[in-house]
Amino acid sequence: MPKLHSVQELNELRTACLAAADSSRPCLTVCAGSGCTAAGANEVLEALRRGLEKRGLEDKVTVKSTGCHGFCEKGPLMIVWPEGVFYNRVAPADAAVLIASVSNGRRPVERLLYKDPVSGKTVLREDEVPFYARQQRVLFGNNGRIDPKQIEDYLRVGGYAALAKVVSGLTPEEVIGSVQRSGLRGRGGAGFPTGTKWEAMHRQTANQKYIICNADEGDPGAFMDRSLLEGNPHSVLEGMIIGAHALGASEGYIYVRAEYPLAVQHLRVALHQAEEYGLLGDNILDSGLSFRIKLVQGAGAFVCGEETALIASIEGRVGEPHPRPPYPVQKGLWGKPTVINNVKTWASVPQIINRGAEWYASIGTERSKGTMVFSLVGKINNTGLVEVPMGVTLRQMIYEIGGGIPKGKQLKAVQIGGPSGGCIPASLLDLPIDYEELTKAGSMMGSGGMVVMDEDTCMVDIARYFMEFLEDESCGKCFPCREGTQRLRAILTRICQGKGTEEDLPLLEEMSWMMKETSLCGLGQTAANPVQTTLRYFRDEYLAHIREKRCPAKVCRELIVYSIEPTACDGCQACVRVCATEAILGEKKKVHRIETAKCIKCGACLEVCQPKAVLVSSGASLCPS
Amino acid sequence: MPKLRINGIEVEVEIGTSVLEAARFLGLPIPTLCHNDGLTPYGACRLCVVEVGNSNGNGRPKLLSACTLQVEDGMVVHTHSSRVERARKLLLEMYVATCPQSKTIQDLASRYGVTQMRLEPKHETCIQCGLCVRMCAQQMMAGAIGFAKRGARRKVSRPFDMTSELCRQCGACLYVCPVCELRCQGPQAETTLCSGCLNFAPVCFQSYDDAMCFLDPCHACELTGPLRPDVPVKLDSEKSAK
Amino acid sequence: MASMDTEQAEKILGQFEAARASLIPILQEIQATYYYLPQTVLRRVSQKLDVPLGEVYHAATFYNCFSLEPVGSHLVQVCLGTACHVRGGPRVLDRILRDLKLPEPGTTRDFSFTVRTVRCIGCCGLAPVVRVDNRIHHHLTQAKVGGMLKLYRPKLAADQEQITANETEDAQATLSAGTE
Q: What does the pLDDT average to over A486-495?
């Protein structure tokens, strides 16, 4: 790859790449993000390549693997360009018919098209799929078009044009001003105004400054950073190089969690290609800017998503946070001024430069600008990544985009923001999603993880689950967090076991308040949020556990009983076979019975019972057989 | 030289002074557990939290540990606001529940008015204040002990749980440990909270001189004992007369 | 599985700058090579990087990726992220532990499996998810656990001999290091 020595050479290369791509030639793009790969995308790609070879069509049809399209529920996903035909649940066996659909005239394969479960209609293109129709994919739009391991693909969709613009004459002040006017807020969780952070760094005088990309996406249920890094790593690199120019940094780091091997791989390829072209290194595009990026892998610690812990980890220490102030912009990596931003924040920068701060500020609400990427998961029909303008309501997210709750169950709550966030009840469905509204409701935007819960989810169990997580992931340095998470978990466990008392509730509230006020870092300060929000909105569930020894969602094992409804049982013995403790007695064709004393309530029988004869009951309605 | 306002009092300090040092300079009592003037500040016990805003009143004031906070010009600090007092009391309630046998912690709890203990008593022998680790590394220059693991499983340990060849058995770690100093096993030893019962008349003062007890009387004892003339002490003879 | 061969450790140490910042990448390489962090190697790392042994030990025990004990032939990582939890992940975990006769996540006595819980593999759309070695199993139910584990059991016999040989070497090496 010839090194680019100027903006002009970059533009010439881009023109050459565009010319080389025959846009009329059919291109089969297969999503090869982690989700679709797990569902078999690589086998689909292999089958397509072999199929084309067999028919001698390698020069007539292109096969490309792309990054995550976001609609993981329906993977493996495929898009056929230039028409933009959208296929879902593609299997290797479909290779032949797919190749035929583009080589023998151009007709879509009906049975692979997306069928809307509500309307029954089949749709042809991606933007007609309800899941995508309401999205505004500023950051993720290109994921389905480009091969993340080919920098030329990124150039074809306008990549590095923002960098060219910046080095062609925008001063650092102008770039920072643009970011400030756009209203961009940090997408890592806290939502701190990015422009303000950059301005603060700009005011620091030091002989060395650093920028860091926080790709330690630790929130369970969140995978948007992963998808962006796998699918469009150059968008992040471009943002960082622009940042280096604006902030005077000569070195940058990308800290990726170890659990994302594919993201690490694609980043390595992208960094290598950018270096080869001279977009990273010395005197980038003859601008005088010298900037290099190092890739650092996490080693498995949620707390390393906290900026000071992340810095400690890069320095070779344990991920124990430092009290702030001083903030990283004052004293960060190795004591030097450092700006840390999330993956999506960096990726937003080229968009703002290319399309203008005013354009960005026109999207969203008054104080929350731009789009937000959510991972919509849990008890929802359409799981996947959703990018929408700030201000979209929860109702739209869950019903119009998410397709509602599976199996006709009732929505109970939406957990937003991971373990630092809170649960929003179904009664607040018309809440517009933005930073301020979520904080008012007691939750937090966080990284954008959105876990949907239905009537079968016990909110006390969820609070306990999060405390278990945080008790383990806490760095353990400060007392309120280390001891507080253990205490809260112990109290919640007692309540789940039916041993709670009414005094436990004010105790939980006071301990939660204390943890929020006195913990050293953000993890401890937000650790009690799940407890506080579930107490606020689902107090009745807590009281049911305490007063009636009943779990309304029938989840807490000590409070439930499994039984078999005699009139529904057909004696098939399916449950007898799966019962781990041999607690089910039943001869063939005779009504079965569960011995409560032996039953460990694992739910295996419930899973396999066809006539739905297995019943779970709790509390006053207990009916042990 | 940065100027800050503590509890309404304006004071000018050297650059690099911590808020804890500035408060102590003014004679304001701020409780600490993990602080030691001869060791680097650690900020783990969180008892020294104070309410910090700034002079232009931006945003909501936060509670920050005074030992690790460097004074900045224009800082506004409150060391005994109701928010701080409430936080300290709840923290101490949790401390006593974790280490009820520690005299230092019981004294702090008594002084700050902790009268109830609603959490299950554990009998841990370490609050991970880090004084022993820092003492060993910074003053004794040995570095034989350190921390291991994370979160609930974190503990002070020697590498690989093996006898460390670096340990010179100087005993400095025992010396600085706030939990090692045990509360007296005197009156009502079975109650978890010394000051939980503010009515008891400490028996030990009768035999204090005979026992040649080297422990300072616990604060709870001081609260109700003969050192407070307003609270009558019932002598054994008077009790049995009833 | 690699044997207790310090030559490889020296090679790894040679690939990195002898500075504090190299500590975690070096530990990651050692973990990948030896499948755990042997004590003798950690002492060598402390020496080479001039980092107190206590701090090396803290880093080795702080992060989830590192293990001070050898792991089994097959690493079973059960995702307990929020989406997987809500869709029944804990029950899948229970079933795996029961099948492998483990009281809690750990290594089976014959070193065939190590079961760990992880928080979020990032495949939330396919919950509940379990990763065994490099393969991701998705949409799991308790009923599917048996079949999934069976895929890995036949390789057991061949690996077993190698493991026993390694363990004896490791144990001897550790003993001699401790008495130095």
A: 97
Instruction: Kindly tell me if the per-residue pLDDT of C178 is higher than 60.
Output: no
Whether the per-residue pLDDT at A429 is higher than 80: the answer is yes
C11 and C48 assigned to the same domain: yes
pLDDT at C52 over 60: yes
* A473–B152 C-beta distance less than 8 A: no
User: What amino acid is encoded at B141 in this protein?
Assistant: M
Of B133, B136, B160, which to mutate for an interface test with C (greatest number of C Cβ within 10 Å)?
A: B160
Are C38 and C83 members of one domain?
Answer: no
Residue of B nearest to C37 (CA): B160
**All partners of chain C with 3 or more CB pairs under 8 angstroms:** A, B
Q: Which two tokens stand for residue A26?
A: 């059919």
Q: What is the pLDDT of residues A395-404, one digit of tens each?
A: 999 999 999 9
**Which chain B residues are closer than 8 Å to C62 by Cβ?**
148-150
CATH number at residue C134: 3.40.30.10
Q: What is the pLDDT of residue A459?
A: 96
CA–CA separation, A372 and A370 (whole Å): 7
Count Cα neighbours of A611 within 13 Å in the Cβ-side half-sphere: 15
| Local structure of residue A364 (DSSP, 8 states) | B
Same structural domain for residues C56 and C87? no
Q: How many CA atoms lie within 13 A of B58 on its CB side?
A: 4
How far is A258 from A299, CA to CA, in rounded Å? Answer: 6
Domains of chain A: 7-133 (3.40.30.10), 151-360 (3.40.50.11540), 371-454 (3.10.20.600), 459-547 (1.20.1440.230), 557-618 (3.30.70.20)
On whether ipTM exceeds 0.85, the answer is yes
- The pTM for the full model equals 0.89
Question: Are A72 and C20 a contacting pair at CB < 8 A?
Answer: no
Is residue C67 in some structural domain?
A: no
> Could you read off the pLDDT of A62-87 as tens digits, one per residue?
899 998 888 888 889 999 988 889 99
User: Does residue C23 share a domain with residue C53?
Assistant: yes
SS3 call for C123:
coil
Q: Which residue has the tokens 């590192």?
A: C66
Contact A220 C84 (CB under 8 A): yes
Per-residue pLDDT of B12-31, as tens digits, reads: 999 999 999 999 999 999 99
Is A384 in the C-facing interface, judged by CB distances under 8 Å? Answer: yes
Same domain (yes/no): C159, C134: yes
Number of domains chain C contains: 2
The token pair at A145 is: 């078009």
- Hey, of A251, A377, A610, which one would you mutate to test binding to chain C, going by the most C CBs within 10 A of its CB? A377
Q: Quote the minimal CA–CA distance from C173 to chain B in Å.
A: 15
- Please check whether residues C105 and C128 belong to one and the same domain: yes
How would residue A561 be classed by pLDDT, with cut points 50, 70 and 90?
Answer: very high
Range of the domain at C117: 74-178
Structure tokens at C32: 């990948």
Q: SS3 sequence, A99-131?
A: HHHHHCCCCCCHHHEEECCCCCCEECEHHHCHH
Same domain, C55 and C6: yes
Is C69 part of a structural domain of the chain? no
- Cα–chain center distance at A428: 23
Q: Kindly state whether residues C47 and C102 are assigned to the same domain.
A: no
User: Looking at beta carbons, which residues of chain A come within 8 Å of C87?
Assistant: 378-379
What mean pLDDT is predicted for residues A9-17? 94
Nearest to C57 among B137, B148, B150 (CB): B148
Q: C100 in a domain, yes or no?
A: yes
Q: Hey, what amino acid is at A471?
A: E
Record: contact C20-A223, CB cut-off 8 A = no
pLDDT at B189: 61
pLDDT the model gives residue A434: 92
